[in-house]
Amino acid sequence: MEVTRPNVAEPTAEELLDLEKLKRVIERAIADYKLTEDELCQIKAIAWADGKVTPQELNLISEMVTQKLRDGELEWVW
Fold first, then answer.
1. Are 43 and 26 within 8 A, CB to CB?
2. What are the C-alpha distances in Å from 4 to residues 8, 9, 33, 48, 66?
3. CB burial of residue 61 (10 Å; 0-12, 13-18, 19+)
4. Nearest-angstrom CA–CA distance, 57 and 65
5. Which helix (H) or strand (E) holds 20?
6. Nearest 5°: phi and psi at 61?
7. Which pLDDT score is estimated for 38?
8. I want to staple 74 with a disulfide (CB 3.0 to 4.6 A). Which of 15, 36, 65, 68 is the partner?
9. Residue 78: its pLDDT value, please?
């Protein structure tokens, strides 16, 4: 199912940099196929660093973390 957001503007250059930073942090966090509470807090901190979470950031977190947790490709470690 494709989700469209017609009222969402294209990301700015700054938002693209933030998105790339978030992606790198997530990649490091899930490299061992495990996600700790500290890693999740770091991901949230990066996403909220500018005081807002964009749809692109939410989508990235969904694809790289949430879906992998659901599919069993990633494990919670508490």
1. yes
2. 9, 12, 30, 23, 19
3. buried
4. 12
5. helix 13-30
6. -65, -40
7. 96
8. 68
9. 82
- Residue holding tokens 């990066």? 46
Q: How far is it, in rounded angstroms, from Cα 63 to Cα 43?
A: 13
Which residues of the chain fall short of a pLDDT of 50? none
pTM above 0.90, yes or no: no
Coil/strand/helix, residue 75: strand
Instruction: Round to whole Å and give the CA distance between 15 and 48.
Output: 12
The per-residue b/e assignment along 43-56, b for 16 or more CB within 10 angstroms, e otherwise, is beebbeeeeeebeb
What is d(CA 30, CA 64) in angstroms, rounded to the nearest whole number?
8
